[in-house]
Write a structure and sequence with these properties.
The chain is of the alpha+beta class. It is built from 28 helices and 20 strands. A hairpin with a 4-residue loop joins β1 and β2. Its main location: nucleus. Pathway: Protein modification; protein ubiquitination. It holds the Pfam family HECT. This is G2E3 ligase.
């Protein structure tokens, strides 16, 4: 039948058949856009046209059908009319398998039904069900099921047509249909692995396996004013008794009349004063969300307050604001005895010089310390950790060889460290291998008094401190990853891993807050880790597990299981319990689900981020060494540590007047509290930072004794120039006066 005909009077667009496959189906996701050209009496599926074996685009884009000339389409239809489909046995099979000696032909819809592979790239090859490319599965591949990271439904780990695995992420599996929808929506510029954000390797594999990635912008970028609704924030106080005289809609930022939205739904609000909230950093839940959590048994019973105030919960709070600190802080006026007795010391709010006691982040960390131990065991543990840290220092120096002299400048707002750091790390010209320079946009004095290295050290200190207290992690001291779906969607776990890796290689502080379970998941894989009860941060879940674990009779166990049946079903942990000993397997199932399986997406994304600069690979090669900086708090500064840190360059005449002895004596006085300055002050005076980086200082700190009046801290060279004095008291007075005044000027 001729394609070019006069326009019929009753042309029904919906009932027209594709001239190549003969079907009327209009399903763009499967067959491409169905296009009808009334002037040519022609209807064709776009994919049928692309994949036909005997036609090429010989025209320009605006000629014919996207460059396929009408005369060529007519010739292809005539050619296909002589070929029988090997699937439906009807004529018109325009697509042939490209495998040598294979003579199978089929329609495009028939090929989809028979699970053929169509490659939408290069010369648009097609493979029949027998010769199609397949993904390689090794014996070590984990069997079972996991969440598809697009639809979040379960996907079986099977080598079948409907399932595809990521080429760049070990534990990322997808439904083929989900990937195709995602590709059509995201387009070639935004289609990438949803776990690690890899684009090139991921797209190459998906094209090979028959996913069509259109060469256009993402659908959400093409829609006009698509994000207009996101610019509107809910601004209304919904508590029963509003105290604001200017009304429920009044909102004054940075005051007690600022409106705080519900941390769960965001569609209810309250003035800070109306809910007795002291700061905006506190979280608040509306009554509707609170009742939902109460009915599900997941809401923690709290002490009654006069108004609905809330503590920080599981971690749905926005990461762009610094959450309230989760650990006790030393006040600026606290006595020195508190430093020696407190089991856990962190920095002050402004992260000025601080001191950490040496404690493991979890009581199950390798070589962890028991609450009571002899001085001998304590000393042995300290020596072991020091050896491991020296090993890490050398490993990180090997990784530092990758860094180039080309610089990347980060403009950082110290008051909004997370958002400014995220913006800097995501800027187009950022590369982990570039030398990083930091400029604090809201601190004019810092740029004048501090060196570039000091600003960089301070930035990484602020950043690691924020990450430790952010909603990406949960737990008290030894932290695990939390489950924050918004953070998963925004790829923030990847960015956090990347930031920690970059910080370690570029001279940042030791994180020191990983739990043993998190560290083992990163190093050995989650399938090889058994979590413990202390890994559960949720109070209600922990209480449920304890109740099951310590049930002493079948009746009490059955009663507990009945009460938490809904929770067990949601966790996939329902199992028949016929004996009291079955509770142990049940407890283990709950722990594995809550600590590991529930957070598998954040974990995989976090692991991909830690691969930056080869850090994760080194962690897996040297687990004991890296455990010393990731799972243990940094060693508290002592006179011995400072003495070992500095190399003294002196002549014989200096030794005669006791310069080196004065220095050692002064360090001991400072450590024992007989000085107005601290060991952190001394380190800050010389290097510009109050902590010792995991990678060490570059250049290494040195001391020179010179005939000068007062000490000089050369932060560019990490060199402390000390005056030669006749008496120790003169030496001490000059040290205290200079260091105290210099740091006071910088802080002001």
């Amino acid at each position: 039948e001729e394609l070019r005909m006069s326009k019929p009077n009753n042309f029904d667009v919906q009932s027209t058949c594709c001239v190549l496959c003969g079907r009327t189906d209009d399903c763009p996701e499967k067959y491409g856009e169905k296009r009808t050209y009334v002037e040519y009496n022609l209807t064709v599926h776009y994919y049928c046209l692309l994949m036909s074996s005997g036609i090429w685009q010989r025209g320009e884009e605006d000629e014919g059908v996207d460059g396929f000339l009408i005369t060529d389409i007519r010739k292809e239809v005539n050619r296909a009319a002589r070929l029988k489909c090997n699937i439906c046995k009807k004529k018109g099979a325009s697509i042939g398998c490209v495998a040598p000696k294979c003579k199978r032909s089929y329609h495009f819809p028939c090929g989809i039904q028979r699970e053929c592979i169509f490659q939408f790239m290069e010369d648009f090859r097609s493979y029949c069900w027998e010769h199609k490319p397949v993904q390689q599965f090794t014996d070590k591949e984990p069997r079972g099921a996991s969440q598809c990271t697009i639809c979040l439904d379960l996907v079986e780990h099977l080598p079948v047509y409907t399932v595809l695995k990521s080429p760049c992420c070990k534990n990322a599996w997808f439904h083929r249909e989900c990937l195709q929808y995602q590709a059509l929506s995201a387009g070639i510029f935004f289609f990438r692995c949803t776990v690690c954000n890899n684009k090139d390797k991921f797209q190459k594999e998906m094209l090979r396996m028959g996913i069509h990635i259109p060469e256009r912008d993402a659908s959400w970028e093409l829609e006009e004013n698509a994000y207009q609704d996101l610019l509107h924030c809910y601004q209304h106080c919904d508590v029963k008794r509003c105290l604001c005289k200017k009304g429920r809609d009044y909102n004054e930022p940075d005051s007690k009349w600022e409106i705080k939205r519900c941390q769960y739904c965001g569609s209810r609000g309250t003035h800070l004063a109306c809910s007795s909230m002291k700061s905006w950093e506190q979280n608040w839940e509306c009554m509707e969300c609170r009742s939902i959590f109460a009915k599900s048994g997941k809401y923690r019973k709290r002490k009654k307050r006069s108004f609905a105030a809330s503590e920080n919960t599981n971690g749905t709070n926005c990461l762009l604001e610094e959450p309230s600190p989760k650990s006790p802080r030393q006040s600026s006026g606290s006595p020195r005895s508190f430093l020696l007795q407190s089991p856990k010391i962190t920095c002050q709010n402004n992260l000025s010089p601080c001191s950490h006691l040496e404690l493991p982040a979890s009581n199950r960390v390798t070589r962890s310390l028991s609450p009571v131990m002899s001085n001998r065991n304590w000393s042995l543990t300290q020596n072991c950790l020091r050896e491991q840290r020296r090993e890490v220092c050398n490993i990180l120096k090997e990784l530092k060889v990758q860094l180039k002299t080309k610089t990347t400048r980060l403009n950082i707002n110290a008051e909004n460290i997370w958002s400014s750091a995220l913006k800097g790390f995501r800027q187009r010209n950022f590369s982990p291998t570039n030398t990083i320079e930091v400029s604090f946009s809201n601190c004019k004095s810092r740029s004048k008094t501090n060196t570039s290295a000091a600003s960089k050290h301070h930035f990484f200190q602020l950043l690691i401190h924020h990450l430790q207290n952010s909603s990406l992690f949960e737990g008290s001291s030894g932290k695990n990853l939390s489950l924050d779906f918004q953070a998963v969607k925004e790829n923030l776990y990847f960015e956090a891993g990347k930031m920690i890796a970059v910080s370690l290689v570029h001279g940042g502080p030791s994180p020191g807050f990983f739990s043993k379970t998190l560290f083992d998941c990163l190093v050995y894989g989650p399938e090889n880790v058994e979590p413990a009860l202390e890994d559960v941060a949720d109070v209600d879940v922990a209480q449920t597990i304890k109740t099951i674990k310590y049930a002493n009779s079948m009746s009490s166990l059955q009663s507990t299981l009945q009460d938490c049946c809904e929770f067990l079903a949601a966790a996939g942990c329902l199992r028949p319990v016929t004996a009291l000993c079955d509770k142990n397997m049940l407890v283990n199932d709950i722990l594995i689900y809550h600590v590991i399986k529930r957070t598998i997406l954040p974990l995989e994304s976090f692991r991909q981020g830690l691969k930056t600069l080869g850090v994760l690979e080194k962690m897996q090669m040297h687990p004991d060494a890296f455990s010393s900086i990731l799972c243990h708090k940094p060693e508290r500064l002592s006179a011995e540590v400072i003495c070992d840190l500095f190399t003294i360059h002196s002549s014989s005449n200096v030794n005669k007047v006791g310069g080196a002895d004065f220095w050692m004596g002064y360090l001991q006085d400072v450590e024992s509290g007989e000085s107005v300055v601290t060991l952190e002050d001394i380190l800050l005076f010389v290097t510009g930072t109050c902590y010792i980086p995991s990678i060490g200082f570059d250049p290494e700190p040195t001391i020179k004794f010179l005939r000068i009046r007062y000490p000089i801290g050369n932060k560019l060279l990490n060199c402390l120039e000390l005056p030669i004095t006749k008496t120790y008291q003169q030496f001490k007075n000059k040290m205290e006066l200079t260091i105290r005044n210099a740091l006071r000027v910088e802080r002001e």
